[in-house]
User: Which sequence fits this backbone?
């Protein structure tokens, strides 16, 4: 999917909501466990319920990998079920040296046809480049994350450069790919961080995972993160998909998604630069 | 596997060789392609041929993941075929926030019973800790890698600390786990790097992937990297498993593994501190 297509979706749905399909067999409603593929049944119902409000879906691959071969089947079926015009993110946080990264890229972009994959930056350019060789596919590089451990390395100051490691990652990686193929993961816990990231990458889309269960204000994210083509995908996982664990789980997920979408619609009017 | 068990294996086989099972369907001998599971058949023959000379096997997960569900089956069968007293490494380079890392840990340590998994450090302590909660299982944290891209971030100097990012990773992470549960990946291209790593982590095992096809001298690695319980696992992948792509591939792999083992036996006599 191109950046233009993505922005068109955002304008048409008045939403920059990404629904995180972190589907845990231990957390889905009990009545689904009788089905042949409970994970897929759950995802299918969530997608049906939220597709008018979400522009992107993001399965976290760990949840599927933990189930072995059957998990990969559920993932594949889920991916095929997501409507064509919706952006898909393989939240895999992969990264390895060149020829191995090429294999990961083929797994997610060719075998599975995801639009994008999250990638870890530690191994540098030749671990990221193989993902950038696919037309209209995206790398979403870890920039700054919202967990406590982000302070261990991401916020360290770099000697002789007036910036932190995460800023260096965001600036350096722009030599490898354009804003038509590269986004950044930015944990949305602090407005000042978003301002720094926007300064370092004015044009790029940011995937913000920290709204909802992980904290972070949607208004702050929108105010400090939005650019002239929105430039934001804001993810909510547990806050939507586990709104209820009864028979009404899809209905409740729809309400939660709609509530976020309505708030986003307001911010698009207010902050779209 | 405990550190004591691993050192006993090293002493008994006079080897610290790890064989990298980077098994690529496009590179294995053509006569195997008629078999029901060519990847497993290849691995089985390689394991049979090298098990007297290797103390560890390291499948790179990308090669299996690229094949989808069938790849995971080949991987599972391979893992079960590796002799009990041999150390197994899931070269997955995973890393995510807490509850998601727990899922990856369960996938590799419980569902698949690997002894260890390689983990990327960028997200910090809470991305690594869940892997350290399993008894007699190991995290092998990316320290410094041998690829060109390692210079993008790993070698950056940290402000107000007289060290590079990779040294900071190696020092900081020792607060999270002991040398009985934590190793480091150290790309073996330069002796001075190994000296720095050994200074930062005198007791830990190092997994050295850079000997053979990736360059790096086994003597230098041994001289500068060995400690009083060896503390080294030196990997060779292509140099062993693709020694021949004819019917004699296993025999040639055996010769290549034996050659490395004999050299290692010499260095164990010479450098074991």
Assistant:
């Amino acid at each position: 999917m191109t950046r233009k297509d993505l922005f068109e979706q955002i304008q048409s749905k008045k939403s920059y909501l990404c629904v995180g399909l972190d589907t845990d067999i231990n957390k889905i409603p009990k009545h689904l466990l009788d089905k042949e593929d409970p994970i897929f049944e759950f995802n299918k119902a969530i997608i049906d319920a939220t597709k008018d409000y979400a522009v992107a879906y993001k399965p976290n691959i760990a949840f599927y990998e933990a189930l072995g071969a059957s998990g990969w089947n559920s993932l594949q079926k889920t991916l095929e079920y997501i409507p064509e015009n919706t952006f898909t993110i393989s939240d895999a946080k992969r990264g390895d040296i060149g020829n191995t990264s090429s294999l990961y890229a083929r797994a997610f972009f060719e075998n599975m046809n995801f639009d994008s994959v999250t990638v870890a930056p530690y191994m540098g350019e030749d671990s990221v480049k193989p993902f950038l060789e696919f037309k209209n596919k995206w790398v979403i590089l870890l920039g700054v994350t919202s967990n406590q451990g982000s302070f261990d390395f991401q916020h360290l100051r770099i000697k002789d450069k007036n910036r932190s490691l995460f800023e260096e990652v965001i600036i350096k990686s722009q030599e490898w790919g354009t804003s038509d193929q590269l986004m950044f993961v930015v944990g949305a816990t602090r407005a000042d961080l978003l301002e720094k990231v926007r300064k370092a990458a004015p044009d790029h889309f940011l995937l913000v995972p920290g709204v909802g269960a992980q904290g972070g204000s949607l208004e702050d994210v929108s105010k400090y993160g939005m650019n002239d083509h929105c430039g934001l995908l804001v993810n909510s996982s547990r806050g939507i998909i586990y709104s209820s664990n009864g028979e009404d789980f899809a209905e409740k997920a729809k309400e939660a998604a709609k509530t976020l979408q309505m708030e986003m619609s307001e911010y698009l009017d207010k902050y779209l630069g």
